[in-house]
Design brief:
Radius of gyration: 17 Å
Strand content: under 5%
Distance between the termini: 18 Å
Shape: globular
Number of helices: 8
Helix content: 55-70%
Strand order of the largest sheet: 1-2
Largest sheet: 2 strands, antiparallel
């Protein structure tokens, strides 16, 4: 019994680390708060895909009054519950890989930021240039300025057995 509990605590600890890391990407002032408009990006970066209505409800639950800001203290427990209950199911890893491979016509194993921006700002649910700039800052290899999508998939997906 004690062994099983330790495993569950490790799982929560791992989830907390992943959530905190995703949150910190958007904590531009390093004060444990983010603009409420960033919540969708943070949740998506954790491999969750809520509907717009779910996103609105989630934001209302964690926002500090109506200030437009969300603290890590309020976000962490709610997002932990979302991940542990698999509330907004992620896209399966193999489908994500297939999607990137379709974009990587030359089978290089990476995408250039310009390529990804072109697809993400013109096709499907489009992102703004500002959203893309933020995403690329977080996702691109800083030395080579490339997006190695297999590494990215590892960041975007959560082990369903967690």
């Amino acid at each position: 019994m004690a062994e099983k509990k330790r495993g569950a605590e490790a799982t929560v600890s791992e989830v907390h680390k992943k959530i905190t890391a995703a949150f910190e990407v958007f904590d531009y002032e390093s004060n444990n708060t983010v603009d409420a408009r960033e919540i969708g990006s943070i949740i998506y970066s954790l491999g969750c895909f809520p509907t717009q209505a779910d996103l609105h409800d989630f934001t209302a639950e964690v926002e500090e009054g109506h200030t437009g800001y969300i603290s890590l203290d309020k976000f962490l427990p709610v997002m932990t519950k979302v991940l542990l209950e698999n509330k907004y199911p992620p896209i399966p890893e193999d489908l994500l890989l297939q999607a990137f491979e379709v974009l990587d016509k030359e089978k290089k194993g990476y995408l250039e930021p310009e390529e990804l921006t072109k697809y993400m700002t013109r096709e499907g649910d489009v992102f703004t240039q500002e959203e893309m700039d933020e995403m690329l800052t977080a996702l691109a290899d800083h030395e080579k300025n490339l997006i190695y999508y297999k590494d990215l998939i590892n960041l975007l997906t959560i082990d369903p057995d967690m």
